[in-house]
Amino acid sequence: MTRGMPLEGEYAPSPVRWVRDHVELIESSGGKEGRTLRGSDRPVVLLTIRGGLTGKLRKVPLMRVEHDGAYALVGSDGGAKRHPGWVHNVLAHPDELLVQDGPDPFEAGVRELDGEERELWWRRAVEAFPTYESYQRKTDRLIPVFLAERRG
After folding, report:
1. What is the pTM of this model?
2. Which pLDDT tens digit goes with each residue over 69-110?
3. Full DSSP string of 92-147
4. 17-150 adopts what CATH topology?
């Protein structure tokens, strides 16, 4: 993606109904509604990424873990045995990402964290959404943590 160009292409809605509905609520309200996880007061951001295989745009609400303008993206999938699909898409297209935290989406680059930096951001993620700890206990895989940082 060329810097300064919006992420464009055909949108492929999630096959999961609540995800589709949540994305639609965020987008139809211009980012004013749907800013929390359904049934809670925990804030979310909307992530738009390019599909690794199809090239179509994918959108997913993720827990809001922000610090100094950077955002952790936690691939928990509720502690499932496999990474959520968006993880593979981010790995395939780390420079084609939009983060929407409120009404204005912004372009971001993303990288997977490891070592001390991952641990720091993992602690921030657990502080924002304590359930992440139980998700990690549920699975044998190390839940990946990515850092999305605004471009320009």
Report:
1. 0.92
2. 999 999 999 999 999 999 999 999 999 999 999 998 999 999
3. H-TT-EEEESSS-EEEEEEEE--HHHHHHHHHHHHHH-THHHHHHHH-SSPPPEEE
4. Pnp Oxidase; Chain A (2.30.110)
